From TrEMBL:
This is ceramide glucosyltransferase. The keyword tRNA-binding does not apply. Its EC number is 2.4.1.80. It is found in: Membrane.
Amino acid sequence: MMMMMMMMMIMIMMFELLFSVPDDNDPAILVVKSLIESFPKVDAKLFIGAREVGSNGKINNMVRPYEAAKFNIIVISDTGIKTTPTTLREMVSCLRPEVGLVLQMPYCAPRKGFGAVYQQVYFGTMQARNCLSANACNINCSTGMSCLLRRDVLDKAGGLAPFGKYLAEDHFIADGIRKQGYKVVLSTLPALQNSGNCEISDFHKRLVRWAKLRMTLLPTLILLEPLGESVIQGAAASLAAGYLLDMSPLAFFIGHLLLWFLSDYILIRIVQNGPLPFSKFEFLAAWLFRETMAPYIILKGHMTHHVVWRDRKYRVKWGGEVERIPLPGDDVQEKKEECKKASSSVTVQRSGKKMMEVLNSVAVTS
């Protein structure tokens, strides 16, 4: 589905909704126009056509509405994020004078299928553990799925356009805001990813891309990241316990995994803030699958020489900059994809639902 970015500007009782699609073939256009007509009192605009400022398609898509924004406080929300009635109010409440950026920790809305459970377990355990611990230690662990920022602060760092040369633009935006002396904080409500695609193979491609980007941004993670995985850490610790303490390595390893499992279960219950939308058996199966697949994902990230994002290949340079790798028949393939997406009623329905969620959220916030 073509990326549609939404930006909401909130100032006391005033706000505007700015929607942006990269081209006029996006099926969300009809939905947004229809809803703008249905809510004439809402200050909403639709921007069609991206401005090429770099290799990052998301930044290209957001530059025009960002520059046209009326207000200083900006919320950036990806199309696949489910907005709740209290989301904006809670994010704005975190924006104290010393705070320049408010992030929502990535999580998932309940969906059907093992792939959905697997994604929810990943974001509720491993990703939540890394995000919360990094935030506690004042380490940059930013994700840009849903965030609130001060435009005047970002403008001092050059605005949005200079970050188009990175795929991990969220990391560098947070870094630019931190360098000006402002804090980056986490909202108490997570960002609920609600994409209709729960295929495990596609999710693994996403994880491999993230692993590759992390290694180029922070080379120290090449050695440190594997040590943070339960299987690798448990194997090393059990061998050490057998050699130094004359303990059974197998018994130590099983105890290690059991303690890790219980800790992750408690963590995901905290993130969920209530009972999980799946059974304990499903959690166990998804947790074991994630833990055993983690070494493969890390190794795959080491072995790949490029990353794939939205059917485009990029070469990642040390430091985070990327350059697009042209593919034969790119133009023809893009036209085929546009025709296919334009006929997708599911995409249209999801876009309409997103608009309604945002309007409800803004109404409650106001």
